[in-house]
Amino acid sequence: MDRVVLCMKWGTLYGAEYANVLYNAVRANLSGPFRFVCLTDDPAGLDGGIEHFPIPDIGLRPEHWRAGAWPKIALFSAELYGLSGRALFLDLDSVIWGPLDDFFTYGQGLIALDSAPWRYKDAAPRTGTAILGFDIGALGWLVERLQADRDQLIARYGIEQDYVHGEVPEIGYWPQDWIRSYKYHLRPPLGIDRLRGPRPPGPEARVLCFHGRPRPIDLIRPPRGNWDVFPHYGRGPVDWMVEYWTRHGGTV
């Protein structure tokens, strides 16, 4: 079965450098052949090893591109530029910290991130779309359903991950120790964050997720003052993030 690593890039928040660093980090952590594909509205600056195609038009209005990450639903299109096989989708701000081969053989059907244990003990799963495993084309009905009843479904769910959670009847979830969150696992406690910066993920981690602020680039090319969200505090470059970024072709 073909292995395809997918990412999406639209707008200006995340530039081509994010896609290039992600591509190089995947190459360093995935053995054997694979295709790396970026669905984007602007392929300028992408590494030559990255295949790129336009983001499929699934009938979204301009506001749906700005809130809720609804363009991600296009990943599930029944026909996606002739791609086939098993896909691993990664958000552009994912940090690849360990081997990825197991993401292509773990479970069946749709496999997603479960962020509920990050916040609550013994909570029902909360589906996140930052890291997805799926068979390309198998969930085309999810796109068709959104196209047929777009406004009502977007009003009901608000964000794309809740739509996926509410409409897909069976979802599997990645092992918790494979994925770490900057905010929930690495950010120092209040007060302590004035004395030291974040520590790197442990060796069991495969992918580090960022969501909202701070973004990876804030830890690499930090703005002046506090780069975290008050009352949390972060200042200056984070050595292990700078090393990761430059090792995979990014600039400081």
Automatic annotation (TrEMBL):
<dbReference type="InterPro" id="IPR029044">
    <property type="entry name" value="Nucleotide-diphossugar_trans"/>
</dbReference>
<protein>
    <submittedName>
        <fullName>Glycosyl transferase</fullName>
    </submittedName>
</protein>
<keyword id="KW-0808">Transferase</keyword>
<dbReference type="GO" id="GO:0016740">
    <property type="term" value="F:transferase activity"/>
</dbReference>
